[in-house]
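Ligand: nicotinamide-adenine-dinucleotide. Inputs:
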Amino acid sequence: MRYINNDLKDKTILITGGAGFIGSNLAFYFQKNHPDANVVVLDSFRSGETLSNGNLKSFGHFKNLIGFRGEIISGDINDKDLLLNLEVNYKFDYIFHEAAISDTTALEQDLMIKTNVNAYKDLLNLAIVHNANMIYASSAATYGNAESPQTVGRESPQNVYGFSKLSMDNISREYMKNSSISIVGLRYFNVYGKNEFFKNRTASMILQFGHQLLSGKNPRLFEGSNKILRDFVYIEDIIQANIKAMEPKKSGIYNVGTGKARSFQDIVDILQKELKTNFSCEYIPNPFVGSYQFHTKADIEITKWALNYEPAYSMEDGIKAYGPEIVKVYEEEVK
Ligand SMILES: NC(=O)c1ccc[n+]([C@@H]2O[C@H](COP(=O)([O-])OP(=O)(O)OC[C@H]3O[C@@H](n4cnc5c(N)ncnc54)[C@H](O)[C@@H]3O)[C@@H](O)[C@H]2O)c1
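Predicted complex:
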């Protein structure tokens, strides 16, 4: 579905992190709905290099871009020469900035701040030189254990990832004061959908439970999972918010969720229905008690006003739409 009237003919769009989950979905959105736009994907792609927690440093994967016909650049947003090259040799009209250390459990504070905060500032400067509107990924992790519903202005990050995203928002607010481009930070809540498989252990619990069920395993949930609630948002609504953020009523930092809190137990129950399985759940003690978000629910009132954003997918709708893809990825990559 196309979310703006402008056909974007001859517009040039940069998507950083375009080989990742959300970035690749954006790339395909433009290819399908705005075929006369020029889309440039920049991503560092995976190299096998890992962080101290054992997860990959970058999750970008060529398979997320199979069928994409735009330009693809393999490069690091921390590379100043690359950014200069982009500044001199391109003229972007819009920048969608998705590249980041997206692993919320990463412990490398130096790399996190450099990649998520410092490189973002360089990209903002590039956006200003090009007069390109900036749409970037912030996160619900900025809220940490702040009370629910999470509202912009009441942040309390509990890890360096959340801190890095809040720092991006702070920089953005400074730039919003006197720049002619629009700058929109989107605080995604828990996103799920196509092309998340290559995030490995950091993929959504919707995909992970789906694959547990398909492999014939009893789903393993934390005790009290009916009381652990999150705002899970389907990728299509994330795309909607990004595209509408190209023409915001006002620059700003906006939550992107469904405005509803759903439990981990709900996920498994809905998945069992969609995948036609009937396994009994196993409950294990929650080792994260004290450091875990137990209730997230995005306050989306301002987002609705500023972006004309209206979430279209309940968790039932999202899992129904995603179900065939969960099965396909299982058949192709896991089995
Ligand atoms: N998926 C979610 O639930 C969620 C929630 C809140 C915020 N976010 C944010 O949304 C954005 C996209 O997340 P995602 O889920 O698609 O994650 P992802 O890891 O799939 O995508 C991020 C991409 O950035 C690339 N990248 C990492 N470091 C880079 C670097 N130095 N230079 C160039 N590219 C680099 C990776 O290779 C990867 O392809 C991220 O900024 C993430 O922090 C995601």
